[in-house]
Amino acid sequence: MGMSVGGTGGPKSDINMTPMIDVLLVLIIIFMVITPLTPKGLEALVPQPPPPGQKATLSDQRTVVITIDSNHKFMINGEDSDEAHLGPRLTEIFKTRAERVVFVKGATDLDFLWVAKAIDIAHGAGIDKVGLMTDKTEAGN
After folding, report:
1. What is the DSSP string of the chain?
2. Which end of the chain has the smaller Cβ count within 10 Å, N or C?
3. Do the domain assignments include residue 68?
4. Does a structural domain hold residue 35?
5. Cα dihedral across residues 55, 61, 64, 68: positive or negative
6. How far apart are CA 115 and CA 132, in angstroms?
């Protein structure tokens, strides 16, 4: 910063860039810190088909699907069950498995209350992850 003393010119005004650069650097640092904290997407579970050439039996089936029809009838992989026996049956199925994943598929005209009950029962049976299935998910298999 200089001052002219005397001379032919009058007062001289220049923009001082130092405070503007300081503010810019602070903003760059703030954006660099905030950027890694942006949320990622949701993890979605999709049922996997059995390996090719291997026919899966009902007891060896890796994917466990709880189906609820419009009459509030529960089924586990096609086997009939009811709300009272759903928890103990899930505990029995998953007692020898390391991966505890179950999928819940409800009828299209079913209230979500029944799907929430199935999810709650599955969590009570010690299931780690619960995925939701729709008709489009099943059609893709």
Report:
1. -----SSS---------HHHHHHHHHHHHHHHHHGGGS--------PPPPPTT-PPPTTT-S-EEEEE-TT--EEETTEEE-HHHHHHHHHHHHTT-S--EEEEEE-TTS-HHHHHHHHHHHHHTT-SEEEEE-HHHHHT-
2. N
3. yes
4. no
5. positive
6. 9
Q: Which residue, 104, 44, 101, is CA-closest to 69? A: 104
Domain count, the chain: 1
Q: Which domain holds residue 89?
A: 64-139
Q: What residues are paired with 101 via a beta bridge?
A: 129
- Domain with 131 in it: what CATH number? 3.30.420.270
